[in-house]
Design brief:
Order of helices and strands: EEEHEHEHHEHEHHEHEHHEEHEE
Strand content: 15-25%
Shape: globular
CATH class: Alpha Beta
Low-confidence stretches: none
CATH architecture: Alpha-Beta Horseshoe
Helix content: 25-40%
Bound molecules: iron/sulfur cluster
Distance between the termini: 34 Å
Number of helices: 11
Radius of gyration: 18 Å
Structural class: alpha/beta
Number of domains: 1
Number of strands: 13
Length: about 300
């Protein structure tokens, strides 16, 4: 197949995702998040549309079983700013829906709300990543992505329209976006605007992303290094915080989500830290709440 792939989280044994396909209309990512994991595999480049993408997708779809979940996108964003002009992801949704596939969108952009008309017609769910409500911190961490209030507004619009939506508070990074009260507030606002699920995880460092964070936050650079490089553990090529530190970081998010009756899941945390109190960790289980399936 040319553009469709079985989802492979870089072979992580800690991934709890169900079987699904992943699809990337764009290579690179113009959001340029400092913590991005993908850059250590594919470099740091702006979003560029793939050539002949729709033609290749239509051919690939003939080779897989209808009804499968296709996620846009696991290691790039399907809604970079250029999508406003190109509408490549919009066309992709139409092709997937028309051919009988289930759609999971994972994005950091409010542009997704533009496509509510298509998403209403096909079984789908949307996960929007919001790591902090602090506009200043978000601007440093995710310089190319829309500010968090616009993303939250997109959650509200999707939910109001009847499209199941969740929020990824992912990653939580020590000393940057880990204030327990602010995390609880984020979960509460997520619930208020209609999110059904929270998926959360701690930041797992790779050499390049840790360096970017250290340069952007020089006051905590040495402590970050100590927590990850010396005190943390190496798991499948990533530097993880030690287990107790990860439990502490995620506790406010998990506790608040449980208290509010939201679905809650962690992502790639491993034994002792993982919780999946949701149909699936990745939000694909929310597709079954789509109104096309519940008429
Ligand atoms: S939106 Fe996702 S893929 Fe794009 S830079 Fe941020 S973390 Fe990386």
């Amino acid at each position: 197949m040319k553009v469709l792939r079985e989802f492979d989280p870089w072979k992580s044994p800690l991934c709890t995702c169900p079987f699904k396909y992943s699809l990337h209309p764009y290579t690179g990512c113009s959001h340029f998040c400092l913590y991005c994991y993908a850059t250590s595999y594919i470099g740091r480049k702006p979003s560029v549309p793939k050539k002949n993408f729709i033609e290749n997708l239509e051919k690939d779809l003939r080779q897989i079983v209808k009804g499968a979940v296709v996620e846009l996108s696991s290691s790039s964003d399907p809604y970079p700013p250029i999508e406003m002009q190109l509408e490549l992801t919009r066309k992709t949704l139409e092709v997937l829906g028309r051919n009988g596939f289930r759609i999971l969108i994972t994005t950091k952009s409010d542009i997704v709300a533009r496509d509510i008309d298509i998403l209403l017609r096909y079984p789908s769910a949307v996960m929007i990543t919001i790591t902090t409500l602090d506009q200043g911190v978000a601007k440093v961490l995710e310089p190319g992505a829309p500010p968090p209030d616009r993303r939250m507004e997109a959650v509200r619009k999707l939910s109001r329209a009847g499209i199941p939506v969740g929020i990824r508070i992912d990653p939580v990074i020590p000393m940057i976006n880990d204030d327990p009260e602010k995390l609880r507030e984020l979960v509460n606002i997520a619930r208020d605007v209609g999110a059904l699920q929270i998926t959360t995880s701690t930041y797992k460092a790779r050499g390049d992303s840790l360096k970017r964070l250290q340069e952007a936050f020089p006051d905590i650079a040495e402590k970050l290094r100590r927590m990850y490089v010396y005190e943390g553990e190496k798991i499948h090529g990533y530097m993880y915080l030690k287990k107790e530190a990860r439990e502490k970081l995620l506790k406010p998010v998990i506790e608040e989500a449980l208290r509010l009756g939201l679905y809650i899941a962690t992502c790639r945390e491993g034994p002792g830290v993982t919780i999946i109190n949701a149909p699936t960790c990745d939000g694909s289980g929310l597709v079954s709440r789509h109104r096309t399936l519940n008429r």
